[in-house]
Amino acid sequence: MNPALIVSDLAKTFTMHLRGGIELPVMTGAAFLLQPGQCAVLGGPSGAGKSSILKMLYGNYAANAGQILVQHRGREIDLARAEPRTILELRRETIGYVSQFLRVVPRVSALDIVAEPLVERGIDRPQATRRAGDLLSRLNLPERLWSLPPATFSGGEQQRVNIARGFITDHPILLLDEPTASLDAVNRTVVVDMIAEKKVAGVALLGIFHDADVRGAVADTIIDVTGFAPRGKDV
Amino acid sequence: MNAAAAQIENLDRSSEALPLLSVRSVSKAYGARIGCTEVNFDIWPGEVLAIVGESGSGKTTLLNCISTRLEPTSGTIAYRMRDGEMRDLYQLGEAERRFLLRTDWGFVHQNPADGLRMTVSAGANVGERLMAVGHRHYGELRATATDWLGRVEIGADRIDDQPRAFSGGMRQRLQIARNLVTAPRLVFMDEPTGGLDVSVQARLLDLVRGLVNELGLSVIIVTHDLAVARLLSHRMLVMKDGRVVEHGLTDRLLDDPQAPYTQLLVSSILQV
């Protein structure tokens, strides 16, 4: 089967113009691929650039060099060079992302936050809301919270809203930035099951998991990012 | 795929490929002083573009140039009319230009008093733009006005009150209803939350966000507030001294700014 995403020669350097233009190289020559139906896990210590890789793959960070080739609408797109409009289209249809923290929007209910990606893809609201409710109950978020904006929720409750929002669509590629970090054992198991179902559905996943049990349960391959460290950098 | 379906798909693609508005090499000089210079960008249907920068960076000059309120010194601004044709805005006849301003476009001013008629009722403020495009039936006008007041969260019992009697936040919501009632395709907003308290601001932003998504509007919004840009816009244009210093996806510009000035702007945001 063709890979869903191919990364080659990817490099990232931060230039701090307010600090006299010093350069902070994060990685160079990163290369790996994601296969449909498999979950790859980024491994390596904190600060090695795992989150930076996810952010470049979502278009949130600019890549300084290299390619991120993605299968999108039957064509191959280089996300590292794509126009903003193309990146937005990729996010809507091809690449999903569960961030570490939920960015809350004032006054929007948890249920609507979860349903939004489906509504954006043209699914009618009642159906999208029903799907959102199914996911939230599966993740054991008490129904009395559904109609509230998540600003006042606990870290674990916000994280579950975030996971539901990321998993509700059928994006062929899904990026996961420590989705289980603030969850209890029961909900961690739910997320592990949900990842397994995504694999069965043919989704290519890439994640960061600090919890060794979760990592062991979901990972098909480990991508060691210390191999992408720029020369001369202490990791 | 059969031939007809393939053709439809091609049509879809080609219409998608056409921007709604194309700005090329637009400059405005006030004598020797630069208002804005060599600005280029496109906006597509359903997109929200934020123009950010500090006071005097040229963002309002640019907004006025592209909304035909201020003729640029050089450059072109092309707009896709409802018949699909791209037209140079400064070559339009007076009737065509009026059609755009009254129907196809909206303009939300920072100060609601600049966009409302303060001495006629709220209902008439909303109904007026409909009447300008030929609606005459009083009952229908009133029903539409009531519906729009409800959508911007103004009670139906306030329909006969003048905006003079409204709070700042209500006036701003009324101005938005007045602009959106004709189903415009493109809305310009100049610091729409500028003079409002934070809690009122949050409510207005959320309302605008909902309406933009629901109606598929294209919006060009000028703001100096990066939180407003983050919440509402897809793309962002950063201006300094009349020039665009950086342009791209809103979240990328805020999370990984490249230009020295954008880095300064982002690092100046106060954390709450």
UniProtKB/TrEMBL annotation, chain A:
Pfam families: ABC_tran. Residues 5-235 form the ABC transporter domain. The keyword S-adenosyl-L-methionine does not apply. The keyword ATP-binding applies. GO terms for molecular function: ATP binding; ATP hydrolysis activity; lyase activity. It comes from the Bacteria. PROSITE patterns: ABC_TRANSPORTER_1, ABC_TRANSPORTER_2. Keywords: ATP-binding, Lyase, Nucleotide-binding. Belongs to the ABC transporter superfamily. This is Phosphonate C-P lyase system protein PhnL. It comes from Phyllobacterium salinisoli. The lineage of its organism: Bacteria, Pseudomonadati, Pseudomonadota, Alphaproteobacteria, Hyphomicrobiales.
TrEMBL record, chain B:
Keywords: ATP-binding, Lyase, Nucleotide-binding. Residues 21-266 form the ABC transporter domain. InterPro entries: AAA+_ATPase (IPR003593), ABC_transporter-like_ATP-bd (IPR003439), ABC_transporter-like_CS (IPR017871), P-loop_NTPase (IPR027417), PhnK (IPR012700). One of its GO terms (biological process) is organic phosphonate catabolic process. Pfam families: ABC_tran. CDD domains: ABC_NikE_OppD_transporters. GO terms for molecular function: ATP binding; ATP hydrolysis activity; lyase activity. Belongs to the ABC transporter superfamily. NCBIfam families: CP_lyasePhnK. This is Phosphonate C-P lyase system protein PhnK. It comes from Phyllobacterium salinisoli. The gene is phnK.
